[in-house]
Write a structure and sequence with these properties.
Elements: E1 3-7, H1 11-23, E2 27-31, H2 33-36, H3 48-51, E3 55-59, H4 66-79, E4 85-89, E5 106-109, H5 114-128
Parallel strand pairs: 1-2, 1-3, 3-4, 4-5
């Protein structure tokens, strides 16, 4: 079962996304990001919740300011480079969004219905490639 961490500043929208993903068979959990608590990523530390996920679904405006969201995504990519990120932007795609390179994300622009979220998650996982195997 694919483990998904939904990071969204709006608890009602986060609940809807998590419920939609669970109905589609994902092990979905949620976090309010830096709005709801101190964010280890913004302090340069790894995030245990993110490290335990197979894919992350982030609200593009989770910090309430474009620069904060950009810093958070860049920090996530640097601290957790192998965890795919779906970046949800309900209306406008942020101009800082990168779909290739070190700070890459899989964009989901528009309303994130359950089917659209699932499709974006599967695309992000496919782009990231297979997880490294443990040589043990």
């Amino acid at each position: 079962m694919t483990r998904v961490l939904v990071v969204h500043h709006d608890v009602d929208l986060s609940d809807q996304e998590v419920d939609a993903l669970r109905r589609r068979g994902y092990d979905a959990r949620q976090c309010m990001g830096p709005i709801g608590a101190r964010c280890p990523v913004l302090s340069g530390h790894t995030c245990e919740l993110a490290a335990g996920a197979d894919v992350l679904v982030y609200d593009a405006f989770m910090t309430g300011e474009p620069e904060g969201a950009q810093r958070l995504i860049e920090g996530m990519r640097e601290l957790h480079p192998d965890v795919p990120i779906v970046l949800v932007a309900n209306s406008l795609e942020p101009d800082w969004m990168e779909t290739a390179g070190a700070h890459r994300v899989t964009p989901l622009v528009g309303y994130p219905t359950g089917d659209r979220l699932a499709a974006a998650i599967e695309a992000a996982i496919k782009i990231a490639g297979p997880a490294p195997t443990d040589p043990a």
